[in-house]
UniProtKB/TrEMBL annotation:
Record keywords: Cell membrane, Membrane, Transmembrane, Transmembrane helix, Transport
Hydrolase found in the keyword field: no
Gene3D superfamilies: MetI-like
Name of the featured protein: Sugar ABC transporter permease
Residue segments, region Disordered: 1-33
Lineage, opening ranks: Bacteria, Bacillati, Actinomycetota, Actinomycetes, Kitasatosporales
Homology family: Belongs to the binding-protein-dependent transport system permease family.
GO terms for cellular component: plasma membrane
Membrane protein topology class: Multi-pass membrane protein
Stretches with biased composition (Low complexity): 1-13, 21-30
Domain ABC transmembrane type-1: 114-328
GO biological process terms on file: transmembrane transport
Membrane-spanning residues: 46-74, 114-139, 151-171, 202-226, 251-272, 312-331
Subcellular location: Cell membrane
Length: 341
């Protein structure tokens, strides 16, 4: 019987699984029972899954300190409550009222710093854009040594900020600095050596360093945008008799409009919030002519030890930048839609 059963073929049919060892037979039916994630859901969820680590780090690095800073703006945190911020009394809107009271010394100083920052930002962003755009257009032509010149143009952007600004601080020294040596001793443009890091000239020194440090970024972005402009447009314009300035005005600048909209916004935000450049150049006590709002808030928080007032100023600055950014994006988007239509 054993040998006969061994030679007998295995049973087949619907009841074969039940007559066997009690395990369901593998096959399509068993595979359909396993839960599967739809392919469309996997395709949509994978990008968000890959972005999750970056979102968590963004939450920890930016959003959490921002929320804590806004909470501090409603507290009367001074040097007496540094050890335990929770015991600081609730100030409500008093810190904000003190900051916007332009008849009081605190509000008057903040308003003067705000206007100084606006003027500095407009000049710095405008000069960075002009120099970067001119250099990018110049670099479009093929000539010997163009690659080396491009690398030299990007050097200020590649250097660490602290090393570059400290070098400029030595160059702006009155007695032994390179700037006064060239202007006074070599060119004879000034009768006596001027002070660059104090007084009214501090604004010029700060603007010079900011433009020197920021224009390579504009050069890099504009140069990348120029690669998307077809050369046939310039060839057709040259055949029609258009000169270089007409080609730049009629072809280059309109084609670079989307790139310039993003570039100007980024430069504006970077320049308006710049803290490293004035702090390294002047220290924690910037001259009045170069008292940017970032260094002013630092002085209000860490020099006078009034963290509540400094946090209120930071919250007002954040609100101002959000309003300006939203208005800028709204205006530029409407202009783009009208031009497309």
């Amino acid at each position: 019987m054993t040998a006969t059963a061994a030679r007998r073929p295995a049973a087949s049919g619907p009841g074969a699984g039940a007559a066997g060892a009690g395990r369901p037979s593998p096959g399509p039916a068993g595979a359909r029972r396993r839960p599967r994630i739809p392919a469309r859901l996997r395709k949509i969820g994978l990008p968000y899954l890959l972005l999750l680590p970056a979102l968590l780090l963004e939450l920890l690095v930016h959003l959490v300190p921002m929320v804590i800073g806004i909470w501090m703006a409603f507290k009367e945190i001074t040097q007496f409550y540094i050890a335990n911020w929770g015991d600081a009394p609730w100030a409500g809107l008093d810190n904000f009222a003190l900051a916007v009271d332009f008849n009081a010394p605190v509000g008057e100083a903040l308003l003067r710093s705000f206007f100084t920052t606006c003027l500095f930002t407009v000049l710095s962003v405008g000069l960075c854009w002009c120099v970067g755009t001119a250099a990018a257009i110049f670099m479009q032509d093929n000539f010997r040594g163009r690659g080396i010149l491009r690398a030299l143009f990007l050097t200020p952007y590649a250097l660490p900020v602290y090393a570059a600004v400290i070098t400029w601080a030595f160059m702006f020294q009155r007695d032994y600095g390179l700037v006064n040596h060239v202007l006074t001793d070599q060119l004879g443009l000034t009768g006596e050596r001027p002070f660059w890091l104090i007084g009214d000239n501090a604004f010029v020194a700060l603007l010079t360093v900011s433009v020197w440090k920021g224009w390579p970024f504009a050069f890099l972005i504009v140069m990348a945008g120029l690669q998307n402009i077809p050369k046939e447009l310039y060839e057709a314009a040259a055949i029609d008799g258009a000169g270089v300035w007409q080609q730049i005005r009629r072809i280059t600048l309109p084609s670079l409009a989307p790139v310039n909209q993003v570039l100007i916004l980024v430069l504006f935000l970077w320049t308006f919030n710049d803290f490293n450049t004035p702090f390294v150049l002047f220290g924690d006590s910037a001259p009045e002519s170069a008292d940017l709002i970032s260094i002013h808030i630092y002085q209000s928080s860490f020099v006078t030890w009034n963290f509540g007032s400094g946090s209120a100023m930071s919250a007002l600055l954040l609100l101002f930048l959000l309003v300006v950014t939203a208005a800028y994006l709204l205006v530029t988007s409407r202009g783009r839609k009208s031009s497309d239509g």
